[in-house]
Amino acid sequence: MAKLKVGIINVTGYAGVELARLLYRHPKVSLSSITGRSAAGQKLVNVFPHLAEIDMTIAAELGEVDLAFSAMPHKSSAEAIMPLVERGVRIIDMSADFRLKDGSEYPKWYDFTHPAPNLLRKAVYGLPEIHRDEIAKAGLVAIPGCYPTGALLALAPAVEEGIIHTDIIVDSKSGVSGAGRTLSLSTHYSEAVDNVCAYSVNGHRHLPEIVQELEALTNVSVSVTFLPHLVPMSRGILSSCYASLKQGTIGKKDEVIELYRHYYKGEPFVRVVDKPPETKQVWGSNFCLVYPVVDTRHNRLIVISCIDNLVKGAAGQAIQDMNIMLGFTETEGLEALPLYP
Amino acid sequence: MAKLKVGIINVTGYAGVELARLLYRHPKVSLSSITGRSAAGQKLVNVFPHLAEIDMTIAAELGEVDLAFSAMPHKSSAEAIMPLVERGVRIIDMSADFRLKDGSEYPKWYDFTHPAPNLLRKAVYGLPEIHRDEIAKAGLVAIPGCYPTGALLALAPAVEEGIIHTDIIVDSKSGVSGAGRTLSLSTHYSEAVDNVCAYSVNGHRHLPEIVQELEALTNVSVSVTFLPHLVPMSRGILSSCYASLKQGTIGKKDEVIELYRHYYKGEPFVRVVDKPPETKQVWGSNFCLVYPVVDTRHNRLIVISCIDNLVKGAAGQAIQDMNIMLGFTETEGLEALPLYP
Amino acid sequence: MAKLKVGIINVTGYAGVELARLLYRHPKVSLSSITGRSAAGQKLVNVFPHLAEIDMTIAAELGEVDLAFSAMPHKSSAEAIMPLVERGVRIIDMSADFRLKDGSEYPKWYDFTHPAPNLLRKAVYGLPEIHRDEIAKAGLVAIPGCYPTGALLALAPAVEEGIIHTDIIVDSKSGVSGAGRTLSLSTHYSEAVDNVCAYSVNGHRHLPEIVQELEALTNVSVSVTFLPHLVPMSRGILSSCYASLKQGTIGKKDEVIELYRHYYKGEPFVRVVDKPPETKQVWGSNFCLVYPVVDTRHNRLIVISCIDNLVKGAAGQAIQDMNIMLGFTETEGLEALPLYP
Amino acid sequence: MAKLKVGIINVTGYAGVELARLLYRHPKVSLSSITGRSAAGQKLVNVFPHLAEIDMTIAAELGEVDLAFSAMPHKSSAEAIMPLVERGVRIIDMSADFRLKDGSEYPKWYDFTHPAPNLLRKAVYGLPEIHRDEIAKAGLVAIPGCYPTGALLALAPAVEEGIIHTDIIVDSKSGVSGAGRTLSLSTHYSEAVDNVCAYSVNGHRHLPEIVQELEALTNVSVSVTFLPHLVPMSRGILSSCYASLKQGTIGKKDEVIELYRHYYKGEPFVRVVDKPPETKQVWGSNFCLVYPVVDTRHNRLIVISCIDNLVKGAAGQAIQDMNIMLGFTETEGLEALPLYP
After folding, report:
1. Is B319 part of any domain?
2. Average of pLDDT values for D178-192?
């Protein structure tokens, strides 16, 4: 049987190139078209020597495909996707353009008026652990942001089961690849090495996603303070989440681990661990490690999660969603174990 | 006038060697004796080639000095210090042995019964910004832990001025030198690089110090959840502190910066900044950067502080205290500006 | 058809654990036995959380297998292997114990008298690009050292084709994982980060391998000065090799690239490139990039090669050899593209 | 006595800002003017928060100074300097514009025709260990490049004493700050971390400096192959230099160390060491460590040197030259010991 054809719009960022790396080895699909903007016309190997095995040329326009991934930046992504949606091509969008259900959030957080607010309702938020069934049927899937992926997987069980007060702090530490391949002073090597800093202290764009999805799990509003930090490594996000336990919900320390294990039972990529996880333990893989623990001095729940921001936080999750959409085994093409050390 | 003689007990850890580096260039004292255990009898340069300028031999026993620094580990430090205190030598202890006022905390946190509980009351907690006057007169000063230094300088103004509810979260990110020079798997290069993890999730030894000092600032108890993280760099601690603002205390966003600036007015080493600070901005210096900001969505105070854990978090603070004890200008020997990039 | 059973002796070092990672996903063999010394009796996941997918217990003794990999240190490896060889188990040894043909080199370089000098002749040096046919028939294959792999692939074409004078300098830069998982001060994070140094300046143990194999390619002796350096990254070796071109052999600059391309034609894992390669371009993969260039000012050949020391320099090459020995496609289980960035 | 006034033209690069850091604490001069191009009009602290102690504004034009440092890029530097030279201001130029004696080299290596070839003869190459007396009297000093500083200090004794054949290989490993503060893909954090690569393989601009100065030490021509590599750390250069020993010049291994010690006797910043040096041992200091050793298998001299590229390789050397020019103690303002770890 002929493999389905897939394409990547804007392969030249870190998420795009990671998609190409993974899709090229996927047994059920064929990567048949890749586009770029400034790099159009170049052989992929000339821009990304590590992908020398993939003998493709970066095109200006997407060829005929059965399913397309967009790795465009926000705003441009919606523009690129809209005509494809009309033609009936199934789309997996890695930008933020279809993550938020409320179109009025876009001017606030992303400085543009959404061009297709009607599509926001149709788009599915592509976190399989929460929206698997909708993803299977979706024509347009919005891949969650890297921070929301880690934060939501850390918090969903506690929020949905109602064991915490919803006054939540998420303190995240991200590797530098999350800032992308576009040059900037803060991601210049000599500036970022030997350095830790917080950023977006007045509100990071991933905050409304986190709130939207947590509130959708329950019928109460949540108050999330989210502070991201840049740490000197290329891949990985560790999120430390804090919330007060409701009295009477969790009696003993081990109960919270049990609750989490039950919640994620059968999930191929979420592993509830009983020791503090490390980002290196997921490097290059689609796993998310989740570690819930109770600060018994103050009856506070702490949940720590780790992902590789470019895999479970971007390209890997996109392929997981594709597998669900196309009826493949969910782990297909994502079997590689983490690279260590 | 002859310079005062100072000595370092156990020069061979990272805090000890940093003390030697700084004291050797101090204009008012003479580093006349250094001791080590396994390295006794060796030239300093053979163990620490970067200190080749210092032509000294590591001794087994401390020589005659006017003031001694102890860079021994906890428990051993108290044992080494007690006879010196009796002889009237002024002591600056970098271990935890005289930081806690309540002797019953030592078995709980450090697994030993304190050998000189009476000295705990006499010892002064050596954070100059809070205890300057007592330090000036002290015979025994306990240098604060690296994490407490950053956390206390971030929180003291808010706690003392009573603008926050005392349910506080301190999420700290430390470079690896804080774990010392003793070998361990978690500080093996291949394990620590490209990696972030939380540790001591059930309670880090620096927690009781933070609580003791915050409670001493006010007459209410505080609930602190403190979670330290290891990040891949050698020096630096960034602490992100979270607490709810009391209603009515802070009306406008800038007021909190003003309150902090007023609190630290005249402090030579604390700088209240109006942009998120970075650990690299204090690398190799005794500065502490403090950045208070309000999450106006939820009326939450966030305070971020940065220090170099080996300078303001250890050896530099020890010299600052020595300067105060000996009546020198407080910045003497600590003038070097941060190394960047 | 039942998969062949393979085992790993001493899985607990970095080469062993990398073997486990790769073998677990190999489609044609089944990893059925793993041993360790101090870790015997523990679940693999407890020692290596990144391998949580592999539900195996580390044993004290190897079970029944069709082929065994030894990841023991030198000397111990020979001892562990000898009885297996007698039982007819095919062996792939990652230690140095069967790399050198001349048994008298072992006391000089490795401080022990070889216990089975007769096996040295039977063992095959497992560099497929040079010894593929012998590997196919071998009962005992010695995986080349990480440095020799990079150096030999850089130099073999020039030496065998006789275009250079055999007075050769190899200046290698290695990531820290090459020093293994055993703790040492020089691989302590705070010491190794932000640092570059040369080591083994009086002769590194990998030198006799390089000389043995280069001399076997031609009938003249070679003079190799080999200087390894430690650089702050976990994986990768870049070797810069220098030799004078014989007059009249290479007329134009491009000829040397052509000669190299011809030499490595059809090799699945050696890629001759025309821009300076970077270690990151092979991270996590079995590729070796080779870049030959001429310093036309002085008619000097420079060849730069890059490998991942744990893959092509150890576990990946071992699997490549296994594939050859067992008649599988040579790339089986080694298809993963390099991880970047 | 009023301090002499000094200024920095283009303070905003890494060499400029390092100069500011060091000059601000220099006891004999006053940093009275700093200029920048795009940053003109801004407070220094706003561009470089680590220099908050220095309360200065970046100006568009240099004020009245007794001596000026230029940290402009090549070509622009000559243009900025020429009018100052005419006004009799003493100049220390950190660019390449006055390093080469032969004006015809500039079009070849730097792509511009030198605007003041007559000044090239008057300018002094500012390596104090070779040109101290000329520096003392100079009106215009050209600070050596970072690579030439390390390479020349490694090779000068051997070349001047005539113990080696002058067919020399210099393999250098540099931290990323050497590439400056200007953004580029190869110095983007995610690209440079976990990576080693060679660059400028067809000839680096620092080569003609190395050749010029080595040839000036003797009356024979030298053949230097120089290959620089980028390694993932911010500061430091380690150069490994290789050359064949002339027969009969060095009988025993220790003689070469003795020869080097004698050559550098009394030099305040060059330390001949007897163990392989590490770049971290000079971090933040003006020291150069030099380690000569003989590969006795092939009678080859290996010399390894380490510097901090921003101090001895740029700003520190500039201040050392200033001290010589102004008759100060040569170490004034450069006493800080290396920062470690």
Report:
1. yes
2. 98
